[in-house]
Design brief:
about 270 residues; mainly alpha; globular
Length: about 270
Amino acid sequence: MHKKTVAFTAGVAIGLMSLSVYANPEQDLQSFRDYFAKKFPTVEMDDFGNGVYALDANARSQWEAIEEFPPYEANVDDGEALFNTPFANGGVGVRQNYPYFDAKTGGIVTLEGAINDCRVKNGEKPLGWKKGEIADLSAYMAYTSRGNKMNIKIPDDPRALAIYERGKRHFYSKRGQLNFACADCHLYNAGQHLRSEVLSPSLGHVTHFPVYRSKWGNLGTLHRRYAGCNKSIRAKPFKAQGDEYKALEYFESYMSNGLSVNGPGQRQ
């Protein structure tokens, strides 16, 4: 990267961080949206939910062709079958409300966490967190929620605010041997090339999960993707559905409030 670009990026990073340290969630959300609106003025706000395909016209045309016969279609069908087993007591069309803060436990409930909690309460074994049946169920529930707007709440509860702040710190903090933060790739350098790949904007990241990645050859959850990002920067991944990734998901999901759910998705 050119030295001037690095200096500019660092300056933007410092500026955003100094603004966000004392901001409340609503101010963070507005700043986040304004940043991407100014960075990519030709992109419609809801189109950010399509990730890199909102920025790269060639990649978008290929993606749209794939979406005519999506590789995750069978996963949605399998997820529907699993959802409709006799013990199912959840609901459809609710993806946009996850994750949420549970005042009773003082913790965050993700969609996958709610699925496994439902299973355990009904005498079933919990599913693995990253792929397989948990991803299928999540895909079906996302599919039934398509078009619904992300609607994550940060209640006026110090425990909820602490988790939100933990997720925000995670997003902006550097880690790993490469000393990268989530924000380095998906905020400051969104739209830039990393080798042959275009870096996707973090705005709308969560709306299309779970995703079928060509690299994986199957469907995976958001926390699986988080772990993959950590490995890419040579950092030790955190535990799927552990406090670190749940806090990060809480922050990222809130930053995507108002965008439409469009999962499951397909990515490279």
